[in-house]
Automatic annotation (TrEMBL):
PROSITE patterns found in the cross-reference section: ZF_SWIM
Protein name (Swiss-Prot/TrEMBL): SWIM-type domain-containing protein
UniProt keyword annotation of Zinc present: yes
Keyword presence, Zinc: yes
SWIM-type domain location: 135-171
Record InterPro entries: Znf_SWIM (IPR007527)
Single Gene Ontology MF annotation: zinc ion binding
Highest taxon in the source lineage: Eukaryota
Length: 330
């Protein structure tokens, strides 16, 4: 059974969303293993702080290297616009996986049947790479919703070769954004840069344009500071100009008062901060191991020691009494 796991495990989880679920524990253990290289059990507080700082610096350095690699455009295999679209939005590691599916869609997949009913295009495809199995793909021409019977997107989180073939036959040159997971995008961190906490893949064109303009403003500001190069006159000019711009924005009648940060977060999660806290954290308890039995009052009065029988001089028997409180015959 274990040797055949590659056959029955995918079939068992065929309809379950497994995107990132299998790697959750391994990622947690990987973080613990990573920090164990820097932090040790006997470290003092100052040593722990220095070691933790070194671990974070190395993590930031690795992140910078990965971001640099993602900025480089990968080599395309197919002259398709949808492959270029994937290269622009996905990280390089994820792009290579999607590139395999796009390349497979250009291969020997045979279309057995095609029909269009009520704006939904249905295809029956025979895949020679999967033992000539027949897969059915349904594509909504208006909403660009696509569904394949192989359920690859449900299991791993990206479209299959059958879906890419259907998109190509329908004249779609980009990946539908409802099938782009934010966790694998180059801009995945931008969703945490402002209070607009929606996924990058779910942004409408207006919000996307606003993000781009905000990013351009930051680049212009950083460029001005860099061009000043420590010149005090240039820095004073930038400071005065920023004050003028800020006063103009505050005095503008088109801009209303911005809502507090906690109100924006409350609107996002659907709850508001209450004035009085009635729900408190539970008392700390130690549930490790097993507890001792409950000791009664009589046993506590004896100091936890077991009583031993002693010989009564009146009845000459070993009991728990003596001659003063003996009830036996004399």
């Amino acid at each position: 059974m274990y040797s055949l796991r590659s056959y029955w495990v995918p079939a068992f989880f065929n309809d379950e969303p497994m995107v990132g679920l299998i790697r959750t524990t391994s990622r947690s253990e990987s973080s613990n293993f990573y920090f164990n290289h820097f932090v040790h059990k006997g470290d003092t507080l100052s040593e722990f702080y220095l070691c933790f700082h070194s671990a974070i610096e190395k993590q930031r350095n690795n992140k910078g290297l990965l971001n640099h690699k993602d900025d480089l455009m990968p080599i395309p295999k197919n002259k398709k616009k949808i492959e270029k679209d994937a290269a622009e939005i996905y990280t390089k590691t994820m792009f290579y996986k999607i590139q395999e599916q796009i390349t497979a869609s250009c291969g020997d997949i045979v279309m057995e049947d095609m029909s269009v009913v009520d704006g939904v295009k249905s295809l029956k495809l025979k895949d020679p790479f999967l033992k000539n199995k027949i897969f059915e793909v349904n594509f909504n021409l208006s909403t660009h919703d696509i569904d394949c019977s192989c359920n690859l997107y449900t299991r791993v989180g990206y479209l299959c070769s059958h879906s890419f073939l259907c998109l190509s036959l329908s004249g779609i040159s980009f990946i539908p954004r409802q099938y782009v997971n934010n966790r694998w995008l180059k801009r995945a961190e931008e969703r945490f840069s402002t209070l607009v906490l929606s996924d990058v893949a779910e942004l409408n064109p207006e919000e996307d344009a606003k993000r781009k303009k905000t990013r351009d403003c930051w680049f212009e500001f950083q460029g001005c500071i860099s061009d000043a190069s420590g010149d005090i006159e240039h820095i004073d000019f930038i400071h005065k100009s920023l004050n003028v711009v800020r006063k103009h924005i505050k005095n503008s009648s088109n801009l209303g008062d911005s809502a507090p940060k906690h109100n924006s977060i409350g609107d996002f999660i659907g709850l508001q901060v209450v004035d009085e806290v009635t729900i408190l954290p539970p008392n700390q308890s130690n549930n490790k191991g097993c507890r001792k039995r409950i000791i009664g009052a009589a046993e506590k009065s004896l100091g936890g020691k077991k009583r031993h029988k002693r010989k009564c001089r009146k009845c000459n028997e070993f009991a728990f009494h003596d001659s003063r409180n003996c009830t036996g015959d004399s």
